[in-house]
Design a protein that fits this description.
Layout lengths: L5 E7 L34 E5 L14 E3 L19 E5 L3 E5 L5 E5 L5 E5 L30 E8 L5 E5 L5 H8 L17 E6 L5 E6 L14 H4 L8 E7 L8 H15 L1 H4 L3 E6 L6 H15 L5 E3 L8 H17 L1
Parallel strand pairs: 1-3, 2-4, 9-11, 9-12, 12-13, 13-14
Antiparallel strand pairs: 1-8, 2-7, 5-6, 5-8, 10-11
Length: about 350
């Protein structure tokens, strides 16, 4: 099924019920105008977005665009207030960002801290003439109409919730890595842009510890200006605690790994400075393709040239080299980061 991480919907809250004009029956000859008993209407129903852990994409909204709450009932005589309109709860994935389609104003984000969001408020109820029983005489003949419910055009944007995000050039071994360490099965092949949509994988370290990792399509030079696929999906890395920058230590196109790193860092900085400040580790992949001393020499040159102060690892997903070490280090980082 097509992966949808951005869509728009229309939400319509319910109208408030009208107030009622009625009068209490009295003994013959008495003035019925002194005893109004028309009741208020009910409030209109609200529209809520509700986070559901069983929903992972916005695909449902490809076929469903309009959501309406119930209208409030009109008031009745003898003090019978109109029933409130039924609220409607629209289920969305965790990490859904909501904004106004016309103004692009951010209305809220549904995550682990805020699991529901009201996006359209129901209209207020109208007043029956019983509400005006202590008002001047002419008011006792009056009632008011219920208010209209809010009407909103919304943009929904999904940001995948993951602890770890993987980025890098196409064919740097990101998908192979995530297949080895988790149950996710992204497509793997020897041509660029094998990964066309983001993938989430769950990495189980032991009976108690695990983390969620996100693989996004590769980033290429000029991506911040619209080239390639990766920049569209970089938003999914915004919630990650740590980023893994994958580098092919022996590129088939004979490109320079150092220049490739600089390219990715440049495109990342052009997209969002917030991402460049996230903890990031360099992961030198495919070390099985070169002699050990060549790998060490290349890595030493790259780290020295970049004046890199962060962590870096050398791995081979094909031969499972240093994979457990990397995963254990990630888990320890996440646990420590969560405690501080």
């Amino acid at each position: 099924m097509r992966f949808i991480d951005m869509t728009d919907i229309t939400v319509v809250a319910g109208n408030g019920g009208h107030g009622c004009v009625s009068f209490q029956k009295t003994r013959k000859g008495s003035s019925f105008l002194k005893k109004p008993n028309g009741s208020n209407g009910g409030d209109g129903g609200n529209v809520w977005l509700l986070a559901d852990p069983n929903v992972n994409t916005l695909n449902y909204f490809h076929f469903h665009h309009i959501f309406r709450a119930g209208h409030g009932q009109c008031g009745r005589s003898r003090g019978c207030t109109g029933k409130k309109g039924k609220d409607i709860f629209v289920k969305v994935p965790y990490g859904t960002r909501v904004s106004d389609k016309k103004t692009n104003e951010l209305l809220g984000e549904i995550d682990s801290h805020k699991k529901w969001l009201m996006v359209a408020k129901g209209g207020r109820h109208g007043f029956g003439n019983g509400h005006f029983k202590y008002a001047p005489r002419h008011k006792k003949l009056c009632s008011t109409h219920g208010g209209a419910g809010e009407f909103q055009h919304l943009n929904l944007e999904l940001l995948l919730i993951a602890d770890v995000g993987i980025l890098g050039l196409p064919n740097s071994g990101k998908s192979s890595f995530i297949r080895v360490i988790s149950s996710a099965k992204p497509k793997v092949a020897d041509y660029p842009f094998t990964t066309l949509v983001p993938y989430l994988g769950v990495v189980q370290i032991n009976d108690y510890d695990r983390f969620v990792i996100a693989d996004i399509p590769g980033i290429i030079k000029g991506a911040s200006n619209g080239s390639g696929l990766g920049m569209r999906f970089l938003k999914h890395l915004e919630h990650c605690q740590i980023l893994l920058h994958f580098i092919d230590i022996a590129p088939l196109d004979n490109s320079d790994p150092l220049e490739n790193i600089i390219t990715i860092r440049h495109e990342l900085n052009n997209y969002s400075k917030k991402l460049t400040y996230k903890p990031c580790w360099l992961i030198f992949n495919k070390i099985d393709l070169l002699e050990r001393y060549v790998v060490e020499k290349k890595i030493e040159y790259i780290i020295s040239s970049l004046q890199w102060k962060g962590r870096y690892y050398s791995i081979s997903s094909t031969h499972n080299t240093n994979i457990s070490l990397l995963c254990d280090s990630i888990m320890k980082f996440i646990i420590y980061h969560g405690q501080n």
